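A common beginner's mistake is to predict each chain separately and then try to dock the pieces by hand. The better habit, illustrated here, is to supply every component at once so that their relative placement is modeled jointly.
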Amino acid sequence: MSRIQDKARALIASKMKLDESEITPEKNIFNDLGADSLDFVELSMLLEREFNVKFTEDDTANVKTVGDLYELIEQYAK
Amino acid sequence: MNRDEIKQYLPHREPMLLVDEMTLDENHVAHSKYHVTGEEFFLQGHFPGEPVVPGVILCEIMAQSCALLMKDDLIGKLTFYTGIDKVRFKNSVKPGDTVEVEATLTYHMRNIYICSAVLSVGGKMCVKGELSFALLPDNRNKQ
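With all components supplied together, the output reads:
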């Protein structure tokens, strides 16, 4: 797991009040982690700030899983 | 922007329209005012002989001020709270007070807006917090 993924996983776990071990790439952010639309927007805001990136609405519209989020951050944080 | 102009954007109406005036500065910070006359419905019973504006109403005053930050997006929409976070009540607000709110848009994605607001009276902070909203279609005039 990359450093970016490590940091993102810690942020997601903290935001969703879950143990880091529960944050795995295949997990659906909404159905498995229990995020609602506001959680997702707040999470995007936290990740943008942490990694100094800016997601577009099209980017985030396709994000369903933790792995999708990792991929998106890595795409911007290169 | 006066009360009549505010009504062109905010869907709220009396007795729940809680912004009398609003200006938007060059940094896109909203500055709004609301004068507590003492005749408001929410002062009845809160509390007999010692009227104090309820905290939830102060949050609503901040929320309406925040909503005016995205006034152009409000046309044809209704505003719904999605969250209230980190709210702290520092001082009470009483009849005769003129409430001033400073509101800033923190983040926006899709139809969700996250704002921070500070409500004060005479320069003394009374409430601060982070508020979030969803804008949803206003279907009231559609069949």
